[in-house]
Task: inverse folding
């Protein structure tokens, strides 16, 4: 048998005043809607923040426009741009990079040919890096590289934080032959193929 406690007992009084959870939810639909709205906003803000962080600092999808990197990259193809690796190390020879083009302030895709301290000499349709003829297996057979000036031969020196870039389709590329070495700050990162 159970014994009844007198009504003056504090546990009995507080227990009798407590509203069951189901009744609480039924009485406050506005609170529930507000809570769901806040949760939805938190998820949306988190998603947008994640997208911005990833696309500005980690990886970004890019589409190649034009034929200046043929045959290595096709026109209208999509690739990933690695936005963080150059925070770890500088661009390297033969990297295919996205850069802010000094010629028109747009974006372009080119190959790094020379890094700071290197010299590039264009002579007789060939590229010489630091005095040695450059082996370029990524070019289409028979591709020649001529200067972009009225002179047949052209010498470029890469200063501190400067990079010499060329398109792989040398006959159809506006690159460092036209605007000279590009500063490091113009290079966004390499393409992942």
Result:
């Amino acid at each position: 048998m159970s014994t009844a406690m007198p009504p003056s007992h504090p546990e009995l009084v507080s227990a009798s005043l407590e509203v069951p959870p189901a009744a609480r939810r039924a009485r406050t639909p506005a609170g529930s809607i507000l809570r769901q709205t806040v949760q939805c906003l938190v998820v949306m803000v988190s998603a947008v923040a994640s997208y911005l962080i990833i696309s500005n600092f980690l990886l970004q999808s890019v589409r190649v426009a034009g034929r200046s990197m043929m045959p290595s990259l096709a026109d209208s193809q999509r690739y990933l741009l690695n936005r963080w690796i150059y925070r770890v190390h500088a661009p390297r020879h033969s990297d295919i990079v996205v850069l802010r083009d000094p010629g028109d302030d747009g974006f372009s895709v080119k190959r790094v040919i020379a890094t700071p301290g290197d010299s590039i000499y264009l002579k007789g349709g060939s590229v010489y890096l630091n005095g040695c003829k450059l082996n370029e297996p990524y070019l289409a057979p028979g591709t020649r590289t001529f200067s972009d000036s009225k002179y047949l031969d052209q010498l470029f020196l890469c200063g501190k934080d400067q990079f010499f870039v060329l398109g792989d389709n040398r006959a159809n590329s506006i690159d460092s032959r036209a605007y000279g070495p590009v500063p490091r700050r113009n290079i966004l990162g390499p393409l992942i193929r």
